[in-house]
């Protein structure tokens, strides 16, 4: 696809029918978590899209985010979106290296100044510029130089979005996120360790379709994917509501698929699309495989006090709370609820484990 | 802590309504059918946006059953379009060229749009036929 050709023209040139294009748009709407009623608008917008330039910078990272995306680079909807962009620089994927690769980046920046999308994975070390360099250029210099001409920046993965694992205590490299260094550009955070591939491409598709960034939450994540907690959309939620929990990984509760809250599930405080979009072509997600959510799309998830440590004891829908409320009257019940909520917030802040005995003391 | 009994136990992976989403979805489909009959408005439900438990999607599809129409398209990979036991309720499953499912919808309408020949395709086909006859 040449830079002047629209997506609609490119698809027709490849022999893809209008019917195929509408199917592509229906799957794209689903991928962007938009209602199916938006399909005609998406079709009209995507038809006219011209190939945008994308520069992808990888800093302190494990390449898991790129792996996540390239796993989806088969002849899929995501693949078509990927084909629609002009990936002008990605030092892991491109054949060129060293000064030749840097020349490609500089050429793409110059040719598309003010229009290209900058994708970043990995955090940026600030304690010493020598901790991570590409072709002798420090990560911080490369980010600041490349960000200048970008239309928007997509921080892919928790490392780029919030510092991630390199930022974990004691943070020996002084790792920071993209938004810690760049303040004058629209930044979309797509956290996750790694992020779900269709969420990465969904964000790119949104930008291609509407020419603007999606609505973001208070920490820069697109609300369409990160607007609900894992807990809210978890199929095990009814067990939480009934007070049915697995206490160990091999007890009866675990075998019956009960809630993993007491085994450290961070679903209640984690916002991501895993519970609905799922992984591996929509097959499953960690909780469905019997493992608690680690909370990998949240800032500082690595320092969250232990993956298998419960956030706190749940305070709602538990028979004990109801008994207190009935026994001591509604006012006392309300007071207990308020105390529990305060305690829960305190504990979440300090990452301290709360036992049922603690709750009894509060009562 | 609430008392755990066998009746409280919801079976994972057996298709029973863990999230209780099957029944509300069937009601949503019922409302959509009323809307279709009353004023011709179509409804599309994206099954990938639902927090369905293992087995629940199959339970829903089993409840809807199969009707008189089964169509298979080949456009950017196969798409299966099945009219369910309830006329006007269609299950549309899009796959890519590697047969991976990329979208799954319930459409409540007279006929899903994808089954119709599209204007652009008709025009292109006409040009090809004219060229062949010239």
Question: How many H/I helices of chain B?
Answer: 3
How many strands in all of chain B? 5
- The strand count of chain A comes to 9
Structural class by SSE content of chain B: alpha+beta
Strand order across the biggest sheet of chain B? Answer: 1-5-4-3-2
- Shape descriptor of chain B reads globular
The percent range for strand residues of chain B is: 15-25%
**Average pLDDT of chain A, to the nearest integer?**
82
Secondary structure tally, helices of chain A: 16
Structural class of chain A: alpha/beta
Description:
The complex is a heterodimer of chains A (363) and B (134). Chain A contains 16 helices and 9 strands. Chain A is of the alpha/beta class. In chain A, strands 2-1-3-7-9 form a 5-stranded parallel β-sheet, with helices on both faces. A two-stranded antiparallel sheet of chain A has the order 4-8. A two-stranded antiparallel ribbon of chain A has the order 5-6. In chain A, a hairpin with a 2-residue loop joins strand 5 and strand 6. Chain B is α+β, with helices and mostly antiparallel strands and 134 residues long. Helices cover 31% and strands 22% of the residues of chain B. Chain B is built from 3 helices and 5 strands; from the N terminus they run H-E-H-E-E-E-E-H. Chain B has a 5-stranded antiparallel β-sheet with strand order 1-5-4-3-2. The relative contact order of chain B is 0.14. The N terminus of chain B is likely disordered. The interface between A and B is large, with 45 and 46 residues.
Salient structural properties:
heterodimer, A: alpha/beta, five-stranded parallel sheet, 16 helices, globular, disordered C terminus, B: 134 residues, alpha+beta, five-stranded antiparallel sheet, disordered N terminus
